[in-house]
Design brief:
With about 290 residues, the protein is mostly helical. It has one domain. It is built from twelve helices and no strands. It starts with a helix and ends with a helix.
Length: about 290
């Protein structure tokens, strides 16, 4: 595949996923929305594996990776879908932009593979400042928005630490096999959560909700992951990091223009602080090397 096309596709998928999450829950509830998305994803992923005859490892390390990925996915997605009832789609993308910073902190503690440089520390501090500004902006939107942001931040932490756990396991299964194994572990948990929270099929779902659920199942759960793993294999990490800088801004603009979401000045300032922190975290060492010449 042409690398620029894959890069742009991942940006578009990740930018539109938060808005699709909100739309998919219209008339159905968050628990059924996330369960149906994962059900579509697991069927499609299994079909692709069989079509291209990709192996599905079942050795101990692979099983551990599926378990880690599945538990992380269940916690992160359940909290994200629940919080989408109270926060805007732009907020979802903005907070998930913190994932590289949280993942880096987890890697420093558990993997000992990263050194805390002054640039990385400054990046984390700017990320925390941006998070504080976003939370401050949520206060004017009511208590439910603040609770939703707390749940959303817990989702970010769950996903980030799940990545660190996977790194500890260090399984080398094919990306699509990893995606399928993760979905196999997570799907029964999503079903149980839906059964306990609601347990009833929606009488009628708006066309927008159906389209959003299918979109998330096909693009968000399968194609997006496959393209992202493809970029990791063929592109420099510094360039891939640009994705986390572009998607929050695009998601904020899409939510504002397509869903009439309110974007307060504090949120824009928080977004700027988070994005600047990500820049410092990813490229501070390179900038220091350039200016020291």
């Amino acid at each position: 595949m042409y690398l620029p096309a894959a890069f742009i596709s991942v940006i578009l998928i990740w930018s539109t996923t938060p808005l699709a999450i909100k739309w998919s829950a219209l008339g159905a509830g968050f628990s059924f929305a996330v369960f149906s998305r994962m059900a579509i994803g697991i069927v499609l992923c299994a079909a692709v594996l069989m079509l291209f005859r990709i192996g599905f490892p079942l050795h101990r390390r692979a099983r551990m990776a599926y378990l880690a990925g599945g538990l992380s996915m269940f916690c992160a997605m359940s909290l994200s879908y629940w919080s989408a009832q109270f926060v805007s789609s732009g907020m979802i993308s903005l907070l998930f932009g913190l994932s590289p910073l949280v993942t880096s902190m987890g890697a420093m503690v558990w993997l000992k593979e990263e050194r805390l440089t002054p640039g990385k520390l400054a990046g984390m501090l700017f990320g925390l400042l941006g998070l504080a500004l976003v939370f401050r902006g949520s206060f004017s939107l009511g208590a439910s928005a603040s609770v939703g942001l707390l749940a959303l931040f817990a989702a970010v932490v769950s996903q980030s630490l799940g990545l660190v756990w996977l790194k500890c396991i260090n399984d080398d299964s094919p990306p699509l096999a990893m995606t399928l194994g993760t979905l196999i572990v997570a799907l029964p948990l999503f079903f149980a959560a839906w059964w306990m929270a609601d347990g009833h099929l929606p009488d009628e779902m708006p066309a927008r909700a159906v389209a959003a659920t299918v979109y998330l199942g096909v693009f968000g759960s399968v194609l997006g992951f496959a393209l992202y793993y493809y970029l990791i294999k063929h592109m420099e990490a510094g360039r891939i990091a640009l994705i986390t800088l572009v998607t929050p801004v695009l998601a904020l603009l899409l939510g504002h223009s397509l869903n009439n979401e309110i974007v307060l000045p504090q949120v824009w300032m928080g977004a700027a602080s988070i994005l600047f922190g990500l820049c410092l975290h990813h490229w501070s060492a390179r900038w220091a090397g350039i200016f020291s010449r």
